[in-house]
Amino acid sequence: MKHISDTADVSPSARIGAGSRIWHLAQVRENVSMGRNCIIGRGAYVGPGVRIGDNSKIQNYALVYEPAVLGEGVFIGPGVILTNDTYPRSITPGGRLKSAEDWVQVGVVIGKGAALGARSVCIAPVTIGEWSSIAAGAVVTKDVPPYALMVGVPARQVGWVGRAGVPLNATSAVDWVCPQTGERYEQTGAALALLGNDD
């Protein structure tokens, strides 16, 4: 059974999956599609038409602007911002207040299991690969490969993480292992893959 706080602002056209919880002062806009067992924290904003996969968490005061797409099991930390305008302006070159017709929305796409640390920012359009981790405060300006560990401003890759979110240890130039789960990964060029994964 889903739970929506009395102080949350949830559009009647939003589709909220079973077991999902929307907390105090959160706003979920029109035509949002939210999967099962999701959590939307205090003061978070989810824009019109955003799609959120099952078991995802959007923490307090995060801003998820349309047309973002979040895969299954995505973690959005406190204060994270997913932008949607490549060249933002309040007014047109002629000085008129811009409306929805005056710009093209671009979005952030986040793969299954990825995690964005507190106050990180994604400058759309970007794709965040599955199971990757974005460090707190990082600013992502280009696509992120699956399993990548990204830090800094602008964000740069400093290693790999496994599905547990723990940095992987190299066992050779192309082989990696998770110190927590023992899962093994193989690197091919700039890509990493979990060995024996049928997903």
Walk me through the structure:
With 199 residues, the chain is mostly beta strands. Helices cover 0% and strands 33% of the residues. It contains no helices and 26 strands. It has strands at residues 3-4, 9-10, 15-16, 21-22, 27-28, 33-34, 39-40, 45-46, 51-52, 57-58, 63-64, 69-70, 75-76, 81-82, 108-110, 115-116, 121-122, 126-128, 133-134, 139-140, 148-151, 156-160, 169-170, 175-177, 184-188, 191-194. The strands form 4 sheets. The protein has a 9-stranded mixed beta sheet with strand order 1-4-7-10-13-16-19-21-22, with no helix packed on it. It has a 7-stranded parallel beta sheet with strand order 2-5-8-11-14-17-20, with no helix packed on it. Strand 25 (184-188) and strand 26 form a beta hairpin. It is globular. The chain starts with a strand and ends in a 5-residue tail after the last strand. The model has no long low-confidence stretch (mean pLDDT 96).
Task: List its salient traits.
seven-stranded parallel sheet; 199 residues; 26 strands
**Overall outline:** globular
Mean pLDDT: 96
Beta-strand content estimate: 25-35%
Question: How would you write the strand order of the largest sheet?
Answer: 1-4-7-10-13-16-19-21-22
The major pleated sheet works out as: 9 strands, mixed
What is the radius of gyration? 18 Å
The number of helical segments is 0
